Each structure stands twice: as C-alpha cells, then as structure tokens.
Amino acid sequence: MMGPLQECKVARVGELRDNKGFLATVHGEEISLFKIGGEVFAIGNVCPHQHFSKLHEGEVAGFSVTCPMHGWAYDVRTGVSTNAGGKVKTYEVQIRRDEVFILIHGDAD
Ligand code: FES
After folding, report:
1. What does the alpha-carbon distance between residue 8 and residue 106 come to, in Å, rounded to a whole number?
2. Residues with Cβ within 6 A of ligand 1?
3. DSSP 58
4. What is the pLDDT of residues 25-68, one digit of tens each?
C-alpha cells in the first residue's frame, strides 16, 4: 500500500558530480541521482533487466544512463529504456538551497 507523498532529503547538491550517479537510500529503496546540465534527476536504481541495483555506476551520455551489467540504457528524465523494453521508476526532485529532496510515497505509519 502506498503511503502519502513525502519529501525526503537525499543529498547535498555539492555531493553530486556532473554526469555521475549518486546512490541514495530512502525508505529502503535505492535511488540513483544524476546531475546533468545543471539539473538533477532521480530514478530507481534497480535495472528491470535482471534486477541488479547498479544504475548509479552506469555511464552517462546525454540524458541516458547505461546499466553496467548488460548495457540496457534508460533516459533519466522519463525512466524509459532507450534500447530495450524496460522502464525504471522516476521521482520528482526538488532543490532547496544546497539540499536535494525527492518526493516519495512513505509507508503509512
Ligand atoms: S541488469 Fe541491467 S542490463 Fe542486465
């Protein structure tokens, strides 16, 4: 069951490097952050292919990240694979001062 949408702090902007993934864990979910062209995107870290949680280590080209395991690539803006059939989750990102938040459904208490 999905709880209400919550804002969760996942990183400081200064921790993110351009065109590199950053792994955050929120409510037990691994989420990969990407800073590309001055914007920050958040996707689920688990690749739909064989469910390895390695997208944060993937190579970034443009707005695409490639899973280092077997090469499935995803557009970080939409989560949609650009070379296969899968889709990863995407999360809304908000930046306030030097902090990065994502909106995520929390567990209902
Ligand atoms: S697990 Fe990502 S491409 Fe196979």
Report:
1. 9
2. 47, 49-50, 52, 67, 69-72
3. S
4. 998 999 999 999 999 999 999 999 999 999 999 999 999 999 99
Token readout for 40 is: 């920050």
Ligand 1: which residue has its CA nearest to atom 1?
Answer: 50
Note whether 106 and 2 are within 8 A (CB).
Answer: no
User: Token pair of 18, please?
Assistant: 């351009």
Q: What is the pLDDT of residue 36?
A: 98
Give the CATH number of the domain where residue 41 resides. 2.102.10.10
What the block records as the tokens of 84 is: 């296969």
Q: How many domains does the chain have?
A: 1
Q: Which domain holds residue 16?
A: 5-105
CA atoms within 13 A on the CB side of 86: 19
